[in-house]
Design a protein that fits this description.
homodimer; alpha/beta; Quinone Oxidoreductase, Chain A, domain 1; Rossmann fold; 7-stranded mixed β-sheet; 6-stranded parallel β-sheet; 7 helices; 20% helix; 27% strand
Chain lengths: 347, 347
């Protein structure tokens, strides 16, 4: 039959609780017709770029009470991606359109666009902006940086901002936005190469390798002798504990991610929450998806600054769908340098 | 010499880190002239009621970087009290005036009123309101309840409110204000007598004795099958950990106190902060002293409702300055029933 092709898929084998391993996923393959069924309202896309994001780990748990359901074992992993419409039964998406949003870890995905969680939108190709940036700088991670910095915190010019996992998909933009805002910005990351990027490529005021610091409290006291006004927390754990001791009065903590979490069922304790009271600290968890009405404003703000070369962005691009499990797992040991993307196909 | 009297004092012996013990304090006595020195701007008061508040423990540490300095070992403990002016070199305070604010744990105190932290104000005696309420319902603890509920959280009618240490100086008012606001309110406390008070005297919708619950998470799931919108946290520790698992989306936690904290230098861990992100929880520490511009509004709001018998208040009144150390220490085991006050003298 014409238009039937092989569709490789990365599937979750079974639910997990701890840190993801490559063996938690496997490759499968099945035939797929390059057709969107009539009357389905769906459209079929060819996936180009897939995003590896730490939050996806939460969907690998057998936990159904969260804002988003868990993955279905045996089915392709879901994640944000950039894709090209191949066939469509949806008048809003036409063959040839580029889209970003929730898709599958596979070559081709039939998308029903039936939930706001999927954050589907058409991309206007732009010669100045790589398509893949729509899962990074201009996608969910970039918007997370924007929302966390401006909606959850309210940094003032001259304030002291600390970002953990600072060279990651979210952190690199947090730091650059805070710098453009007139803040003093220090980032932490896990290698000397990343520290170098933070200082010399992303323009952070300073940066350090947390793996070289035996005492994180002492490290933060060295980098922030005046204390921290805004902590953009991507990691949780020991760094959060140390930051709590170094916050300034009325400090703000945007709780964005806890990539250091070893286990949901037996999480490590945070010991310094008593600091919240005398320092009147606000600590707030957030999801970018609550602020989608701000997305157009974000897109314009960041695209413009990117084109003016006031913002840079680094991707860690893996080639081939089959590299996805290792790339995803690498997020939790910090193997990636910059935003982790999988290139499944180039247009 | 005329006007020289014995002045008994409760002094801190030395700095501590763990839970206060009676032996950390001792009684002393010295002579005092019942005079405010000319040119000092000070006034001399006779202390009537002294307040035992858990926050005072923080001033027993050798830690100088907080919002308020530590106590001075060998000097009388400082705390909120109600007192009567005996002699004055300050035109704003005249002999015979009743005041509330920061005073000493002693019979007589010379007050310099040189810091906003002392929260000194004149009290208009009112036949309908016991003087001692100015260190409880109408003083710092009451104002803490008001600020935490209305300024830190923003409860809506019909929302689910949980209060820990609910029969304490702060908790009893939090619950009653939340009820008047149209919320569903459950409190936790540490004895069946207190649970009875919460349900039958303070009008909480429900209450439980945390000491009888082997699994606090399960207890909260039983009392809040729909989850918690607002948690007014007076205790920290295991109850905070369990509450984190039971918050609703966009829940708010006012972090008011951590009376369960066993040690500042080796605090127990909180394990469920990862809940902050998917549930978008805001957790905020606060001090009532940041909101003093709201004090007149609070005083009017609560006095009025008290006089209309829409609010009740329970004090645990100890007689005699010498009972202060045991009464203070009792706060940390929940020995007190209601607001702990020491009566030093009755007018």
């Amino acid at each position: 039959m014409a238009g039937v092709v092989e569709n490789r898929q990365v599937v979750l084998k079974e639910y997990i609780d701890g840190i993801p391993k490559e063996s938690d996923m496997e490759m499968k393959s099945e035939k797929v017709a390059l057709k969107a069924p009539k009357g389905s309202g769906a459209f079929l896309v060819k996936n180009l770029y897939l995003s590896c994001d730490p939050y996806m780990r939460g969907r690998m748990r057998n936990f159904h009470a969260s804002y988003i359901p868990p993955f279905v074992p045996g089915q392709p992993i879901e994640g944000f991606g950039v894709a090209k419409v191949v066939d469509s039964d949806n008048p809003d998406f036409k063959p040839g359109d580029y889209i970003s949003g929730l898709t599958g870890w596979e070559d081709y995905t039939l998308i029903y666009n039936n939930t706001s969680l999927s954050q589907l939108r058409k991309i206007q190709p732009d010669d100045c902006i790589p398509l893949s940036y729509h899962v990074g700088l201009l996608g969910m991670p970039g918007f997370t940086a924007y929302v966390g910095l401006y909606e959850i915190c309210s940094p003032k010019k001259g304030e002291y901002v600390f970002v953990s996992a600072a060279s990651g998909a979210v952190g690199q933009l947090v730091g650059q936005l805070a710098k453009l805002h007139g803040c003093y910005v220090v980032g932490s990351s896990g290698s000397s190469q990343k520290v170098d990027l933070l200082k010399n490529h992303f323009g952070f005021d300073d940066a350090f390798n947390y793996k070289e610091e035996a005492d994180l409290d002492a490290a933060l006291k060295r980098y922030f002798p005046q204390g921290i006004d805004v902590y953009f927390d991507n990691v949780g754990g020991d760094m959060l504990d140390a930051a709590l001791l170094n916050m300034r009065v009325h400090g703000q903590i945007a709780v964005c991610g806890m990539v250091s979490l070893h286990s949901f069922s037996d999480p490590k304790g945070i010991h310094n929450l008593h600091s919240l009271i005398p320092k009147r600290i606000k600590m707030q968890g957030f999801l970018q998806s609550d602020y989608l009405n701000k997305f157009p404003e974000f897109l314009e703000h960041v695209s413009e600054r990117y084109k003016q070369q006031n913002i840079v962005y680094i991707e860690d691009m893996n080639e081939g769908l089959e590299t996805a499990p290792a790339a995803f797992v690498g997020l939790f040991s910090g193997r990636n340098i910059g935003k982790q993307v999988i290139c499944v196909a180039r247009d």
